[in-house]
Each structure stands twice: as structure tokens, then as C-alpha cells.
Design brief:
Strand content: 25-35%
Number of strands: 15
Largest sheet: 9 strands, mixed
Number of helices: 11
CATH architecture of the largest domain: 4-Layer Sandwich
Structural class: alpha+beta
Helix content: 25-40%
CATH class of the largest domain: Alpha Beta
CATH superfamily of the largest domain: L-amino peptidase D-ALA esterase/amidase
Length: 391
């Protein structure tokens, strides 16, 4: 997989722009093609998600553009929220000369507040005038949808002649059963809407669906992918590239989790089945006790084992093997081997935990099931950020 510059604007035919003013922003992306989406599993679902899901059905899986705003989630806003989402779609649709069902709408920000149409219209006009396809345009759009994010999250790759790229935002209220955040993905591959939906569902399940920052599921999580269809592509190759892009974006979100100082990758192997591996991996990266130990560089491995034990996964304490290492380094510090505690390694484990990227491996020794989850530590700043979120 070859990383390239330009974010979503590395895809031929994609134009983007963004404007940010304080907490409020508008991002625009124009590109036509087959499209698919996955959405939050929260029963409280923001109006833009319902509208976009309906539009994908009405347009038979095709989008011509996406409009997204930050600063207001437009969630739990009733009939007015639905009308505001439709108004956003109409704004961009008229600009592009297409029907509103061809526009994806997304929002992020504070729940239970109504959209400020006057402000959004002003930001939209500024963003519309900046719509373009140069390399900075992708970053501009990514910045416009940031809330508590501290860095722009974008990626573009080239693989076997086609390209896949994406931008995303997300730093808190993160632990979905599907995805978490706003993410807009683009490819020049020729893929049907049905194939695109299947590939996206699988890619999101392996990446965004295995991401935990704080154990909360947002009302606004949305992932959209649009394929412009300019390049022939093998389906298996496309699925590989899409999963890679989604996984890298998920890692970026984990690393930029609210108040986070470390990215944690949790690898579970040897489970009875894939579902058990997923249960154990997510339980560990979700655990507040594990997360605080990681923040303090404390090799309190008992918390990891305890989290796996309450996850619902089948396990045998006498078969567990657990190791910690700095991500990207070959040397693992084994804390437990086949159920036996390894003595004299805590100082070495503490040193490994000082890394900004940590890899934890847990082998349950029961079967062939495996899974990876992505998370971060829990620091003082997480409390500060969320204590002051609306004030």
C-alpha cells in the first residue's frame, strides 16, 4: 500500500473546501459516483443521518456531494432538526445543480441545540467560493469539521492502479458498534453501490467498530464512501485498500482521543472464535483501570487479565499469554506465559509503556479466533475537556 499526498483531493474529480469560525465550521465535498454509508447504532440518531440514509435509498446509491457542519450536532431536535438538515442539503444541491437526494448531510457538536441557519449560510457561502481540488483543500475540509480534535486526520493511498482516500474527525464519545465520528471516503475505483456497501460494512467493522476512546456511542456517527468509477479495480484489492484506510483513520482517532497521550493497539489471538476475540479486545481497551494504568506507565497487567475475564469471552486462566511492547519494535516483554507469571520483568515493561504507541498482545490459547482493537489512555485532560464541553 503506497501512501500519497493530498487526502481526498488525491482522487481525480474530488473538490473540497472548508471554513471554520470559532467552534463552528462548514465543510463541502463535491464528487459524483456510487455511494454507501454506515451509521450510528445509537437509538437517539441525529436528523442528518436519517436524511442521508433516506437519500442513499432514493438516489439508488449515488451521491454528488457532502455538506457537513461542526459546532451543532442537530440531534434530539425533532421536526425542526429534520427541516434544518433538508435545508442544508438544498443549499449544496442548488449550488451543484443536482437534486437534494444526491447530497449527504452530516453534523457534529453539541446535542440538543438548534442549527443557526444565518451563521451556517454565511459559512457555506465562504466555503462554496473556495471549492477546489488542490492538495490543501482536503485539509481545509477536515479542519472545518473538527470539534475537540487537535490534529487533522486524512490519508490517501494508491494500490494496484487505483486510489482510496479519506478524512475523519473524532476524539471523544467514541465506542460504537459500527463506527464513530464523521468520515468521508473517496475512491476512483469502479465499484457498484451494492459492492461498495458490502465492502464499507466489512471495513468499518474491522476498524471503526473496534475503536474505543471512552465507551460512549455518539448520536451522529457516519461514514460515507463515494466511488467516482474512473479506474477498473479488483474487488478483493479494493476491499484491502479500503480496510487499510479505515484502520489508519481509526488509529489516528485513538491517538487523538480527548486528553490522550498514547495510542494503544490491542491484539487478541487464540480465542475460541472471532466474536470472543472481539469481546476481549474491546473490553480491555474500554477498561478505565487499564487506561489509567497505561497513562501512568504502570505495568499493572492484572487489570488487563481481569478485563478479559469479564468480557464474556471463553478463556482458561492456565492458557493465557500476555505481552507488552512499544509499537513497531520487535522485542516483547512477556508478563504471563501459559498461565504462569513471569518474574523480574516489571521494570522492563514500565520502560516499554513509556512509548507513545503501545502494543498489547493477549493469546487465550483456545482456538484460532483473533481481533484487533484500538484505544488510548485516560488522562487528567479527558475530564477537563468534557467538564467544560458546553461552557
Amino acid at each position: 500500500m503506497k501512501r500519497i499526498e493530498g487526502g481526498i483531493c488525491a482522487i481525480d474529480g474530488v473538490r473540497a473546501s472548508g471554513v471554520k469560525r470559532g467552534k463552528y465550521g462548514v465543510a463541502l465535498i463535491a464528487a459524483g459516483g456510487a455511494a454507501a454509508g454506515v451509521f450510528t447504532t445509537n437509538r437517539i440518531r441525529a436528523a442528518p443521518l436519517d436524511l442521508t440514509a433516506e437519500s442513499l435509498i432514493a438516489s439508488e446509491g449515488r451521491l454528488e456531494g457532502v455538506i457537513a457542519n461542526s459546532g451543532c450536532a442537530n440531534a434530539y431536535t425533532g421536526p425542526r432538526g429534520v427541516e434544518d438538515a433538508r435545508w442544508m442539503a438544498d443549499l449544496f444541491a442548488k449550488s451543484l445543480g443536482v437534486g437534494p437526494e444526491k447530497i449527504g448531510v452530516a453534523s457534529t457538536g453539541v446535542i440538543g441545540r438548534y442549527l443557526d441557519r444565518d451563521l451556517l449560510a454565511e459559512l457555506f457561502r465562504e466555503a462554496k467560493a473556495r471549492l477546489r481540488s488542490d492538495l490543501e483543500a482536503s485539509r481545509e475540509a477536515a479542519r472545518a469539521i473538527m470539534t475537540t480534535d487537535t490534529v487533522v486526520k486524512e490519508i490517501a493511498v494508491e494500490h494496484v492502479g487505483f486510489r482510496v482516500a479519506g478524512i475523519t474527525k473524532g476524539a471523544g464519545m467514541i465506542e460504537p458498534n459500527m463506527a464513530t465520528m464523521l468520515s468521508f471516503l473517496y475512491t476512483d475505483a469502479r465499484i457498484s453501490p451494492k459492492q461498495l456497501r458490502e465492502c464499507l460494512t466489512e471495513a468499518a467493522d474491522e476498524s471503526f467498530g473496534m475503536l474505543v476512546v471512552d465507551g460512549d456511542t455518539s448520536t451522529n456517527d457516519m461514514v460515507l464512501v463515494t466511488a467516482t468509477g474512473k479506474v477498473e479495480a479488483n474487488l478483493a484489492d479494493f476491499k484491502e485498500a479500503l480496510t487499510y484506510v479505515c484502520t489508519e483513520l481509526a488509529k489516528m482517532m485513538a491517538k487523538d482521543g480527548e486528553g490522550a497521550t498514547k495510542l494503544v493497539e490491542m491484539e487478541v489471538t487464540g480465542a475460541r472464535n472471532r466474536e470472543d476475540a472481539r469481546l476481549a479486545a474491546k473490553a480491555i481497551v474500554r477498561s478505565s483501570l487499564v487506561k489509567t494504568a497505561i497513562f501512568g506507565n504502570d505495568p499493572n497487567w492484572g487489570r488487563i487479565v481481569a478485563a478479559a475475564g469479564r468480557s464474556g469471552a471463553d478463556l482458561d486462566p492456565e492458557r493465557i499469554t500476555l505481552s507488552i511492547s512499544a509499537a513497531g519494535r520487535k522485542k516483547e516483554v512477556f508478563l504471563v506465559r501459559d498461565g504462569e507469571i513471569v518474574d523480574g520483568v516489571l521494570a522492563e515493561a514500565e520502560e516499554a509503556m513509556k512509548s507513545e504507541e503501545l502494543l498489547i498482545k493477549l493469546d487465550l490459547g483456545l482456538g484460532n479466533g483473533s481481533a484487533r482493537a484500538f484505544g488510548c489512555d485516560l488522562s487528567y485532560d479527558y475530564v477537563r475537556i468534557n467538564a467544560d464541553y458546553t461552557t
